[in-house]
Amino acid sequence: MIIIYNSDSGFTKKYAEMFASATGMKAYGLTDNIPQNEKAVFFGWVFADVIKGLSKAKKKANIKAIVAVGINENSEKNTKRLQQSNITQNSPLFYARGGVDFSKKHGIQKFLLSVVLKSQCKKKAKTKEEAQQIWEETKTKGIDFVDIKNLQPLLQWYQSQN
Ligand SMILES: Cc1cc2nc3c(=O)[nH]c(=O)nc-3n(C[C@H](O)[C@H](O)[C@H](O)COP(=O)(O)O)c2cc1C
Are strands 50-51 and 27-29 parallel, antiparallel or unpaired? Predict the structure, then answer.
């Protein structure tokens, strides 16, 4: 089994590499020269509930498990929505919280991300000023939730396969 990942700003790649070093599996980017028709675990970043690259990965490999990497909190509701918006029926779907790096985002993606995060800042803050402060901090420092603990359910699934 191999790992295939599709990452835009690097967080999904970090998870794929963590999983590779935990299992000894080889990780390939979606545009790399991937060996044909291998069994694979696919890691893709989430864009408006769509797991980016999943349909392309399915054409290149036999996808046995899917890991969606997004900024939302991990919850049953979030996973259900991802299952409804993506064709995941034949493989288990795992979720790992990624991050945000504004320095790597441009144009429409940067704009959309700003809209979502600004509204989250408003929800967190008690006053307009506090919301603005949290937003400024998010913009400059970014957010990084990447943690091997978030891959625990996937690692358990992987061990059960062997
Ligand atoms: C335009 C845009 C839309 C996004 N939509 C979602 C979303 O619907 N759900 C979610 O959980 N995260 C969403 N995200 C957050 C990304 O999935 C998150 O930043 C992820 O860690 C990016 O992974 P990458 O660094 O591998 O590209 C969105 C990000 C961008 C830029």
Answer: unpaired
Range of the domain at 132: 102-141
Is 48 touching ligand 1 by the criterion CB < 6 Å? yes
> How does pLDDT run across 82-129, given as a tens digit for each residue?
999 998 888 999 999 999 999 999 999 999 999 989 998 999 899 999
Residues 73 and 122 in one domain: no
Residues 81 and 115 in one domain: no
Helix, strand or coil for residue 103? helix
The reply to whether the predicted model has a pTM over 0.90 is yes
Total domains present in the chain: 2
What CATH code is carried by the domain that includes residue 84? Answer: 3.40.50
With contact defined as beta carbons under 8 Å apart, do 55 and 45 qualify? no
Distances (CA, A) of 136 to 39, 97, 114, 128: 43, 21, 11, 12
Longest Cα separation, the chain: 55
What's the CA gap between 148 and 22, in Å, rounded? 9
Determine if ligand 1 sits within 6 Å of the CB of residue 9: yes
Q: Are residues 89 and 15 both part of a single domain?
A: yes
Q: Give the Å distance between the CA of 162 and the centre of ligand 1.
A: 32
